[in-house]
């Protein structure tokens, strides 16, 4: 089966990370994730991320760089994460599609939300960028 990429944005602003609470489908609703979605045929991951952030949050953003790692989702999907930032003058993100709440999390608040299980290792990598550890991991 050909792998299909889901891109997630580690949208960063002032040392905080944007987390989004899914409103659907039922098995994922109420859990928190990185905004993003599936890369469509003919799109680069960066293009997909900019499109998804526009559609889901109503913001214009730019992609900064890839967070190292590939995390398995429901086959054939795998999660890739990119850091991104809002363009100057961009609107405040709003939960327009797929989400019903948003939170900007400081490094200290990173584990206050109930991340999707499959996002936890990805968020751990983002935590390194924010200079925060994961209190649930011993080292
Ligand atoms: N966007 C996003 N999706 C994730 C994450 N973690 C995770 O398991 N997923 C899953 C949920 C979905 O099954 C799939 C992405 O689907 P989606 O619904 O966000 O993507 P999309 O906007 O392109 O969806 P579609 O309605 O066009 O099918 O990946 C994550 O951090 N961000």
TrEMBL record:
One GO term (biological process): DNA repair
Database matches in CDD domains: NUDIX_MutT_NudA_like
InterPro entries: MutT-like (IPR047127), Nudix_hydrolase (IPR020476), NUDIX_hydrolase-like_dom_sf (IPR015797), NUDIX_hydrolase_CS (IPR020084), NUDIX_hydrolase_dom (IPR000086)
Gene Ontology MF term list: 8-oxo-7,8-dihydrodeoxyguanosine triphosphate pyrophosphatase activity; 8-oxo-7,8-dihydroguanosine triphosphate pyrophosphatase activity; 8-oxo-dGDP phosphatase activity; 8-oxo-GDP phosphatase activity; metal ion binding
Record flagged with keyword DNA damage: yes
Family: Belongs to the Nudix hydrolase family.
Name of the protein this chain belongs to: 8-oxo-dGTP diphosphatase
Originating species: Streptomyces curacoi
